[in-house]
Every structure is written in structure tokens, then in C-alpha cells.
Design a protein that fits this description.
This protein is of the alpha+beta class and 512 residues long. It has helices spanning 27-34, 72-82, 87-96, 99-106, 113-126, 180-188, 190-199, 203-224, 231-242, 251-261, 301-317, 322-336, 343-357, 369-375, 377-392, 412-416, 421-460, 464-476, 483-487, 495-508, and strands spanning 12-13, 16-17, 22-25, 44-48, 54-55, 59-62, 141-142, 155-157, 162-164, 278-282, 289-294, 397-399, 405-407. Helix content is 51%, strand content 9%. The strands form five sheets. The chain has a four-stranded mixed β-sheet. The protein has a three-stranded mixed β-sheet with strand order 7-9-8, with helices on one face. The radius of gyration is 27 Å and the shape is elongated. The termini are far apart.
């Protein structure tokens, strides 16, 4: 089929300013030609009549000599060569193109690596065999080019003479583009830096820090959801987080964890959803839904969760980078949103589980990534929206009589084939913040608290309960006791003693 490169009028393509005079090629041209109902990829390819080759966050600009011929086959070759594998675009495309056209297209260059990759991807995505005989000769080529995207070691497909190194299964396979930021993180070996630091901390101090950070992480996870749990509820969830990586993460385990998260089950239907769901607001007058995110259809949950679990196991077995695995699996879970409530907290638990299971974090030493997410909660919201809002444009829905949503079209592919690059970059940012700031800050505080405690014990012989309260008041007041504390809890202290304690606290905690 002839497919023209798309030349945007008014220099705008789907709300995005085009970088120069020229034409859009690759996936962008294919999406436009076939009117595919998919989100526009974050980075598009553009052949400029004037500019030299360049790359920005949203564009790859190519010189005129890169311009592909105006047919589907050449556009697909360009896309696979320079943009990587986009499973969602390919799936929607294959649903429109006839098998006869695909067979003719592939057989033009039967031994060509791109023909073989297109052939394999069709049969893998569509679970259907084209009328093409198995190849007898040809060197194996990878389906995913690792210069462009992260992949697993993979296994050969003798029929197509390719190596299936897709980082997932047919029912769940997000992909992550190789970016300068991710490569820098991976090559810096943050895990080694973390272990070197933890090994330098006294074991008893690390245990105390872990106990505090466990509770802090639990509270942070609730706070992200806009909740302020009672101490026993936060402690119960903290205990579950501390055991992350021990139990196998399957549907039964997810159900168990949801029961720990949801304290009052009178108003929440527990277990895997048997109804449609959305995240957002409701109109104040009509109470009709105003979704920010529409969850996967409940009819698709069995297939999606089976694929999600299989992919989780595959990536952990193939030893893909643990943070990338955690990003794919944890964000994939929250996008699917399999429960009525508790999805956000379980999503962050899954990060703990993957990192612990893949030995990125030491078992029993809490890695308070939720605390870092809370510190960057605005960025976190934007990261979730970067997936949810583009998908919303392609979900046909209507409000139901009970003010829920009813999804009218097939949406399963949006939840199993998506680009998780920005989510992986965000998670790595949080991992670095946790290692460089959150854990050291807590250890540093405990070291200073010990020094302050020794001084108070020696000079004032104050019981631990009162000393803890004193330190809490001083921390809140930046080294100054409030008048209320002096006249109520610490009336026994003389004025000169208050001044001495405040001075010592500021000195130890380096408060100016």
C-alpha cells in the first residue's frame, strides 16, 4: 500500500509544534495514514528539508537523505530502525492491514532482517500464523534493537530466524527506551554505592533507622493517597512492607495485601474488580464521573493479570535491571487498577517487592522509596498523567446510572503495550534520592540524637520517655522549646537549664 509521509499544515502535528519545514515519517506517518487510535509517541521522527540531524525530547530530526519511500513497508523499516518497537502501534496496524497484503510485503525481502522482524511481530501480537513457510537459512537477528530499547537475553524463533528478546509476554509487554539519563544511572551502579554506604553504618544504628523508615514509608504511602492512618494501621502496613520479597507475588498475595491496606471493608468491594472503575472526580450537581484515568475493563483483568505475573517472573528470571523491572511491573499494575481500592499503595509495595526479590535492597533493611515519592508528589502525579491522559482520548465511555463509567470499545492493548520510559526515569530519580538523602539523613539524625541523649542522661538523668518528647519539641522548634512545653511538660526545668539544653541541641544538630 502507498503511504505518504505526513506533511503537517500550520506546522503543528496533534498539538505538537513541528521543528522545521519537512515531513513526519515512521510511526507518526503510519498513525496518521491509518488513523490508528493510539496515543502519539513521545518522540516522533521528522525529515527536514533544511536542518541537520538532531534529537530533542520530542523529535528526532533527520536530513533529507533519510526520507523513506512512500509505502508501508519502507515506513515500517524506518520506524523499526530508528524508533524501535512500538507494540501498540503495530497491533492496531495489523488489525487493519489484510494478511494477504502483509504476506506480499514480507516476501519482498524474505531474508531481510526487517521483513523477519515484522513477520515475527505480527504472529506474536496476533496469535495467528501467516501463510509463509518457515525459514531454512539466515542469521538470527534480535526483535528489539538494544541500542534503542532495553531487552532481555531472549530465545530464538527458528521459524523467523529472530531472537525474541521482548521484555514481556504477549499479554503484558511495556517497553523502555534507552535514554542518556537511564544509561547514566545504570552505569553508575547505584546499588554498589548503596551497599558501600550501608556497610559503613553500625548495625544497631542501621536497624533503628530501618524501623523508623519502615513506619515513615508506610505513612508516606497513605499520605500520597490523601489519607492519615491511625498509628496501628500504618504500623501494620509497615510490617507488610518490611516483608516485601518473601512471599510469591500472585493474585492470592495481592488479595492478602489489599486486606491489610483496607481497614474498613464495609464500603469497599474486596478482591479483583467485578465492575468498571475510574480515578477522578464527580460533578458536584449531577454526580456524573469526571475521569482522570479509566481502569482496564473488568472483563480483561484475568488476561491482563496473568500476563502481568508471567512478565514479572520472566524479567526477574532474565535479570533485567531491577529498577527498570520495578518500573514496568509496578506502574503497569497501577495503570491496570485491578482493585476497587488500595491500588496505589499496592503499586508502591510492588516496587519494594521487586527490588528486594532481585537483591537490589537487603532483606529487612527498608528502602523508603514512598517517602521520596511523597517528596516529589507533584512530579509523581504528572508521571501518572503522562500515561492516563493520552489513553483517555481513545477510550469511548458513558456514565452509568450509578455514576460509574461504562467502557464501550476494546481497550486491553492500552494496558499491556505502553512506553514506560518516563516512569523508569522517575523511579530511578527516587531511588537515587533515597540512597543519597533519605537514608543518610535518618542515620545522621539518629547519630546526633544519640549524642544528645548521652548529654541529657549525664547532666539531667532524664527518663527516656521525657527525653524523647523533649527532642521532638526541639526538632519542631528548630532547637527552641515552645513556651507551652516549658510551662506544661517541662516545668521542672529552670530557665538556665532550658537555655543550656537548647544550646546543646543546636550545637549537636548544627542549627544556626
Amino acid at each position: 500500500m502507498s503511504i505518504k509521509c505526513y506533511s503537517p499544515e500550520l506546522s503543528v502535528f496533534h498539538g505538537r509544534k513541528v521543528p522545521a519545514e519537512g515531513v513526519i515519517v515512521g510511526y507518526g506517518a503510519i498513525i496518521e495514514a491509518y488513523q490508528l487510535q493510539v496515543p502519539i509517541p513521545k518522540q516522533l521522527s521528522f525529515v527536514s528539508h533544511k536542518k541537520r540531524r538532531a534529537k530533542t525530547e520530542y523529535w528526532q530530526v533527520f536530513e533529507a537523505r533519510y526520507l523513506p519511500e512512500e509505502n508501508l513497508y519502507k515506513q515500517l523499516i524506518f520506524a523499526l530502525k530508528y524508533e524501535g518497537v512500538n507494540l501498540l502501534v503495530l497491533k492496531k496496524l495489523f488489525e487493519q492491514v489484510s494478511t494477504i497484503e502483509l504476506e506480499q510485503m514480507i516476501q519482498q525481502e524474505m531474508l531481510g532482517q526487517y521483513s523477519r522482524r515484522i513477520w515475527f511481530l505480527y504472529e506474536w501480537l496476533m496469535s495467528d500464523k501467516l501463510d509463509i513457510p518457515d525459514l531454512k537459512t539466515g542469521n538470527l537477528v534480535p526483535v528489539v534493537v538494544e541500542k534503542l530499547q532495553y531487552a532481555i537475553k531472549g530465545e530464538s524463533s527458528p521459524r523467523h530466524k529472530v531472537i525474541n528478546n521482548l521484555p514481556g509476554t504477549r499479554n503484558f509487554c511495556p517497553l523502555i527506551r534507552k535514554t542518556e539519563k537511564l544509561e547514566k544511572y545504570i552505569l553508575s551502579d547505584i546499588r554498589k554505592q548503596k551497599n558501600t554506604y550501608l556497610n559503613s553504618v553500625r548495625k544497631d544504628l542501621l536497624q533503628r533507622a530501618s524501623a523508623y523508615l519502615l513506619l515513615k514509608d508506610s505513612k508516606a504511602s497513605f499520605t500520597i493517597e490523601g489519607e492519615k492512618p491511625r498509628s496501628n494501621r500504618a504500623a501494620r502496613w509497615g510490617k507488610a512492607i518490611g516483608q516485601a520479597g518473601i512471599n510469591e507475588l500472585d493474585v492470592n498475595e495481592l488479595n492478602r495485601l489489599q486486606q491489610i491496606v483496607i481497614e474498613n471493608t464495609r464500603f469497599t468491594r474486596m478482591g479483583i474488580r467485578e465492575q468498571q472503575g475510574f480515578v477522578g472526580e464527580r460533578d458536584e450537581v449531577s454526580q456524573e464521573p469526571i475521569p482522570d484515568h479509566i481502569s482496564a475493563k473488568f472483563e480483561d483483568l484475568s488476561t491482563l493479570l496473568e500476563g502481568w505475573i508471567d512478565t514479572k517472573n520472566l524479567l526477574m528470571e532474565k535479570e533485567m535491571d531491577p529498577v527498570l523491572v520495578a518500573a514496568e511491573i509496578a506502574f503497569g499494575f497501577v495503570f491496570i487498577h485491578p482493585f476497587v481500592d488500595g491500588n496505589g499503595r499496592l503499586h508502591r509495595y510492588i516496587i519494594h517487592h521487586i527490588l528486594a526479590k532481585m537483591n537490589y535492597t537487603q532483606q529487612g533493611v527498608i528502602f523508603p522509596v514512598s517517602a521520596s515519592i511523597l517528596d516529589h508528589v507533584k512530579d509523581y502525579g504528572e508521571i501518572l498523567e503522562q500515561y492516563s491522559h493520552p489513553i483517555l482520548e481513545h477510550i469511548n465511555w458513558k456514565p452509568t446510572p450509578d455514576n460509574n463509567v461504562e467502557v464501550l470499545n476494546d481497550t486491553i492493548d492500552y494496558y499491556r503495550y505502553f512506553d514506560a520510559t518516563v516512569q523508569a526515569e522517575f523511579l530511578y530519580d527516587c531511588v537515587q534520592d533515597t540512597i543519597e538523602n533519605i537514608i543518610p539523613n535518618e542515620v545522621n539524625y539518629l547519630e546526633k540524637y544519640e549524642a544528645f541523649k548521652r548529654y541529657i542522661d549525664d547532666v539531667y538523668e532524664m527518663p527516656d520517655k521525657e527525653l524523647s518528647l523533649l527532642a521532638s519539641f526541639l526538632r519542631q522548634g528548630q532547637g527552641v522549646l515552645s513556651k507551652c512545653a516549658i510551662t506544661k511538660e517541662f516545668t521542672v526545668l529552670e530557665e538556665k537549664e532550658v537555655k543550656d539544653i537548647e544550646s546543646k541541641y543546636k550545637d549537636i544538630f548544627e542549627i544556626k
